[in-house]
């Protein structure tokens, strides 16, 4: 299957979704925009489930870019650790429209008709996420930055994921004012949760201004991820 054809279809679908929403655009409109015949289109994507899966695959690939960008930033290890969990909220508050595909693509009821090969691609990309964060976690353990062992670290990371995901949903809710949950409050929740690790005195300290500056830089560079 031509990757160029898939890219052509997904590019057009993203434009249509931005204009009309995920439920309003039609596959016939995709044919008109891409110049593909109905037969060519349907040999590539069978339905909107396929398209949602392919767009979500792009979201996951962009998250890999985010992983690299955080690792290359000037933040210290502790700030990078927090940055991974702050970013979904921060970017959702700015780009509320981006949240939709992420929620749809992880809802089995809305993607259950996706072709198996597309689901396999998404599943593989999803499982490969977070290599940079995992390396960072190993670094934190190896440098003896906190009292907690690996089991405790995994438990705390899960709690921070829940805060990260939940706060991004709140940020993306168009019926809630942006002032309802400011970024400083999200950082407070994440820092308080991470304190369960019992950080040692020699561990790096968090400079909130540096953290916020990096979040702004990441979003300004258009690495727009909501995971």
UniProtKB/TrEMBL annotation:
Membrane-crossing residue ranges in chain numbering: none
Statement: the UniProt record of this protein carries the keyword Glycoprotein: no
SUPFAM superfamilies: Homeodomain-like
HTH tetR-type domain ranges (all copies): 3-63
GO molecular function: DNA binding
Family matches, as Pfam families: TetR_N
Gene3D superfamilies to which the protein is assigned, alphabetical: Tetracycline Repressor, domain 2 (1.10.357.10)
Keyword Hydrolase recorded: no
DNA-binding region coordinates: 26-45
Keywords tagged on the record: DNA-binding
Protein name as annotated: TetR/AcrR family transcriptional regulator
